[in-house]
Amino acid sequence: MAKVTRDDVARLAGTSTAVVSYVINNGPRPVAPATRERVLAAIKELGYRPDRVAQAMASRRTDLIGMIVPDARQPFFAEMTHAVEQAAAERGKMVLVGNSDYRNEREIHYLRAFLGMRVSGLILVSQGMSESAAAEIDAWDARVVLLHERPEAIDDVAVVTDDVGGAQLATRHLLEHGHEYVVCLGGVESTPSVGDPVADHIEGWRRAMQESGRSTEGRLVQAPYDRYAAYEVALGLLAGPDRPPAIFCSTDDQAIGVLRAARELRIDVPGELAVAGFDNVKEAALTDPPLTTISSDRPAMARAAVDLVLDDGLRVAGSRRERVKQFPSALIIRRSCGCG
Question: Residue limits of the HTH lacI-type domain (predicted)?
Answer without folding.
Answer: 4-59
